Amino acid sequence: MLKRMSVVICGAAVLAMTSGYATAQSATQEAKDKTKAAASKTAEVVTDAEITSAVKTKLLGDKTVGGLKLDVDTKDGVVTLSGPVHSAAERTEALRLARTTKGVKSVKNNLVLDTAATTGRTDKDDKLKVEVKDDTKESADKVKDASKKGAEKTKDAAVKTKDVTADASITSAVKTKLLADTKVGGLKIDVDTKDNIVTLTGVVKSAAEKAEAVRLAKTTSGVKSVVDKLTIQQ
Fold first, then answer.
1. Which domains are delineated in the chain?
2. Distance (Å, rounded) from C-alpha 222 to C-alpha 43?
């Protein structure tokens, strides 16, 4: 009788220990999965920032491409290139450099071919040259009016291109300063410029880092003002 009771008690103890071990093991695995997911999410953000920096470095280092005029944005490994280029060859080279950068999944082409900046004329100007051959007064007046309108459009396009170029140059200059400053995690900060107004977004580790990033942007040549959208990591 005593022997049978001992066997029952031992069996119950083993069952309890096995159940407790299984529960602990399950909790440990769940914690590992959560940690791995969080690490993966953090790595994805860093990867986008690293891709942006790598593509910009390649564009700035290439003689065919006007890297200062091009803006680069990366989200989930997809790179978007925007800004003016002087030729189809320059556009092709910029896209090639982005596509061949490590970690890039695909490239969106928002580059604008600025033919007026390189040839000094537009398709409308070429058309006007043919119309000038007409000796009638009416044709001459039409050519004069069309030439005036073409000149105004060309002037407006030149002003717009100049503004885009200035904004792209400011963006590149600010990002370069952020990457070079040891007090600032430049890879985690995104810079956008419109009409010489710089917007900073991203995550910083402290108020001191945030203040330094804003200071670097404000002291960059050509910057009118800085919009601070930086978030301090908790």
1. 44-113 (3.30.1340.30)
2. 34
**pLDDT tens for residues 32-54?**
676 565 555 544 555 899 999 99
Maximal C-alpha separation, the chain: 129
Q: For a pLDDT cut of 90, what percent of the chain falls above it? A: 46
Tell me the H-state helices in the chain: 2-61, 88-99, 115-119, 123-131, 137-180, 207-218
pLDDT for 64: 83
- Chain mean position to CA 89: 22
CA dihedral 212, 214, 216, 218 (to 10 degrees): -150
How far is the C-alpha of 150 from the C-alpha of 153, rounded, in Å?
5
Per residue in 55-92, pLDDT tens?
Answer: 999 899 888 888 788 999 999 999 999 999 989 999 99
Across the beta sheet with 197-204, what order do the strands follow? 189-194, 197-204, 225-232
Q: Which of 63, 64, 66, 96 is nearest to 165 (CA)?
A: 66
Residue 107 clears pLDDT 90, i.e. is over it: yes
DSSP string covering 89-112: HHHHHHHHHHHTSTT--EEEEEEE
